């Protein structure tokens, strides 16, 4: 069981460097500043907690004392059983595979971008050129199609491996890749629930840290820069972050009561086991719904793009036919191909929209059940209090 801490208040990881702690403090201090939150007692309390947390974590000795207190609060880690070690090995392998495929997917995305630029350039030259330019445009289009397939395959494989990691943890509570930072939150040294202000602050601090003249000479620093860039790109985008969270979902574990010597926001009542269970379900359903909606939006945009390309290809084919051009067959074939792709994109968009609708319904249902359980627990606690 992990105790609540000043790290939780600033939404940073326990191993966060001073630069990240400072930037996170500045971001939250601006967010909860009294001038921006007039007549808001909750913001005033948060501001007090943020100040108290930074006072401790910015002081080396106070931070060491706080860390020692946290170690006392945390339950000692027992040795894993043989079965758990086997599961841990599976989780570690899945996490490592996920990291590899994620990197390959990112590389494939860059290749797709380059192929798109080449195909667009070839298409523009084909408009004013002859058969040779048309042939080159067709070749560039084919190359783009191949890169798109590679990118889609890499992305699908990365999602598959991430889902394996998440499935293992949901079933066993064992996390893959424990020996190294395997999530974007770990990379930026922040907590999973960190607001976007802290995400930006942590990225800024780490980017400045690694982008020094000495740091750039280090291969490790270059890899770190690449990692934080990828992490920031995902976590600073609400839709991408929701999708990522749905794939790397980690159920929240209950926290120990906070020590009076460690300032925190007041806690009115410890949630029951049933409340935590339903809250976890609601959080997971909300994340899955957000991811499904994001994919539906993406599929809808792809459908519009495919439809526009099909219409343009059909127009070009008609123009070539009217002008009795030599390359009419090429344009006709291209138009037919674009029409097929538009039809497929429409089917994917409809399926994604249906999935998003279903996940949103599940999320609403889970949230309603969660609120119901909370009300029942609160009523029961109040009744017990009156009985005393």
Offer a quick outline of the entry:
With 388 residues, the chain is mostly helical. Helix content is 76%, strand content 1%. Among the domains are: 2-73 and 184-247, Helix Hairpins (Orthogonal Bundle); 272-388.
List keywords for this structure.
388 residues, mainly alpha, Helix Hairpins, two-stranded parallel sheet, 12 helices, 76% helix
CATH architectural type of the domain at 2-73 and 184-247: Orthogonal Bundle
Q: Which geometry do the CA atoms define? A: elongated
User: Considering DSSP H and I runs of 4 or more, what fraction of the residues is helical?
Assistant: over 70%
Tally the helices: what do you get?
12
Distance between the termini: 30 Å
Order of helices and strands: EHHHHHHHHHHEHH
Side by side, the strands of the main sheet go 1-2
* Protein structure class: mainly alpha
CATH topology of the domain at 2-73 and 184-247: the name is: Helix Hairpins
CATH first level of the domain at 2-73 and 184-247: Mainly Alpha
Spans where pLDDT lies below 50 across 5 or more residues: 177-181, 213-217, 249-268
Question: Looking at the chains present, what oligomeric state does this protein adopt?
Answer: single chain
Average pLDDT, to the nearest integer? Answer: 77
Largest sheet: 2 strands, parallel
Count of distinct strands: 2
Relevant CATH superfamily of the domain at 2-73 and 184-247: DnaJ domain
Rg (CA only): 27 Å
The percent range for strand residues is under 5%
């Amino acid at each position: 069981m992990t105790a609540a801490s000043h790290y939780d208040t600033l939404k940073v990881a326990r191993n966060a460097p001073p630069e990240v702690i400072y930037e996170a403090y500045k971001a939250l201090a601006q967010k909860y500043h009294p001038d921006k939150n007039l007549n808001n007692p909750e913001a005033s309390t948060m501001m007090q907690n943020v100040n108290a947390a930074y006072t401790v974590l910015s002081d080396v000795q106070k931070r060491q004392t706080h860390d020692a207190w946290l170690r006392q609060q945390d339950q000692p880690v027992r040795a894993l059983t043989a079965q758990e070690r086997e599961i841990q090995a599976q989780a570690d392998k899945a996490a490592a595979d996920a990291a590899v495929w994620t990197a390959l997917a990112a590389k494939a995305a860059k290749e797709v971008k380059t192929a798109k630029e080449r195909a667009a350039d070839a298409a523009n030259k084909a408009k004013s050129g002859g058969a040779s330019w048309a042939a080159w445009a067709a070749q560039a289009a084919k190359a783009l199609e191949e890169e798109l397939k590679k990118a889609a395959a890499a992305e699908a494989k990365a999602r598959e491996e991430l889902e394996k990691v998440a499935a293992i943890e949901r079933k066993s509570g064992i996390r893959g890749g424990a020996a190294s930072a395997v999530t974007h939150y770990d990379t930026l040294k922040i907590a999973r629930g960190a607001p976007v202000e802290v995400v930006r602050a942590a990225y800024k601090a780490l980017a400045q840290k690694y982008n020094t003249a000495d740091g750039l000479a280090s291969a490790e620093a270059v890899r770190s820069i690449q990692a934080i860039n990828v992490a920031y790109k995902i976590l600073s985008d609400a839709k991408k972050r929701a999708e990522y969270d749905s794939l790397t979902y980690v159920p929240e574990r209950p926290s120990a009561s906070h020590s009076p010597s460690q300032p925190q926001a007041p806690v009115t009542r410890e949630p029951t086991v049933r409340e935590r269970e339903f809250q976890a379900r609601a959080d997971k359903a909300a994340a899955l719904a957000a991811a499904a909606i994001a994919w539906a939006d993406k599929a809808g945009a792809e459908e519009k793009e495919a439809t526009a390309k099909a219409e343009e290809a059909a127009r070009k084919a008609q123009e070539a036919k009217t002008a009795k051009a030599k390359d009419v067959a090429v344009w006709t074939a291209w138009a037919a191909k674009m029409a097929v792709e538009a039809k497929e994109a429409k089917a994917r968009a409809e399926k994604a929209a249906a999935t998003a609708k279903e996940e949103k319904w599940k999320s609403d249902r889970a949230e309603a059940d969660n609120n119901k359980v909370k009300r029942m627990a609160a009523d029961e606690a109040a009744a017990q209090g009156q009985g005393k």
